[in-house]
Amino acid sequence: MEAISRRMLFRTGALAAGGLVAAGALAGCSSESATSALAASTTTTLPAKTPDQALARLMAGNARYVAGDPINEGRDIYRRESVTSTQTPFAVILTCSDSRVAPEVIFDEGIGDLFVVRVAGNTGATPITQGSIEYAVEHLHSILVMVLGHEGCGAVKAALGVAAGGAMPDGQIGAVVEPILPAASAALSLPKDQQLGAAIQQNALNQAGLLSGLGPVLAPDVSAGKVKVVSAEYMLTSGKVRLLN
Fold first, then answer.
1. How far apart are CA 126 and CA 179, in angstroms?
2. How many domains does the chain have?
3. 25: domain range?
4. Radius of gyration (Cα) for the chain, nearest Å?
């Protein structure tokens, strides 16, 4: 028999039968407790009404991913259909184009939950990137912006090479490297084996600082506490996201 997902069970009414069993087990509990137990049994993540709640939701999802226990089923046909007419992403993720960094996966989120902006080196220097983020905040009401660097970033490696006196890469790759150069230059004073990690982290911090002060859309909301901008690093080996600020 074809496997049936939990969401399909909800849709076909199988939950009603399961609810009868649960009702017997919860007979001595209050209606509030029963409601909480039912909510805990679903894959729906808690809504994020504040930037801190949004950040907590992301980090909780990443913890599930690291543990190999994802629960979000928001990538199926039902979610796809439910968001065809509107979207309400609670967070913007500015991250690298690296194929190993997939925000919806590493944060255990679904279709329509995250507004993802990807560019090699996760930099926010160009008007197109900035405008994309501003659009999510102003028109889609996203309340968190995360600049997510990652372990072993090739764009940062290239920037370190240029900062150390090497030639700028050919073609338009130089446009990717240039915004990273301040972070790369700052890292050159460290021992060789620490430079890449330090530059990756400093670059994420630099980009978050740039976005935080970006007017006229982001800066006022950040100052008012309506939006939070944070930086983080994704570890390719462990899958863990660690906050930098």
1. 9
2. 2
3. 1-42
4. 21
> pTM here?
0.82
Listing from the earlier edge strand, what are the strands of the sheet with 91-95?
Answer: 114-118, 91-95, 144-150, 228-234, 241-243
- Answer yes or no: do 115 and 67 share one domain: yes
CB 231 within 8 A of CB 245: yes
**Is the pLDDT confidence value at 174 over 50?**
yes
Give the pair of three-digit tokens for residue 188. 């050159």
Asked whether residue 38 falls in the same domain as residue 74, the answer is no
Contacts of 221 (CB under 8 A, 6+ apart): 137, 227
- Rounded Cα distance, 74 and 96, in Å: 23
**What does the alpha-carbon distance between residue 157 and residue 188 come to, in Å, rounded to a whole number?**
12
165 and 149 in one domain?
yes
Per-residue pLDDT tens over the stretch 27-46: 334 334 433 333 333 334 67
Q: Which residue has the tokens 């909510």?
A: 39
Do residues 169 and 195 share a domain? yes
- Over the stretch 103-138, which tens digit does the pLDDT of each residue have? 999 999 999 999 999 999 999 999 999 999 999 999
25 and 128: one domain?
no
Q: Which two tokens stand for residue 220?
A: 């006022």
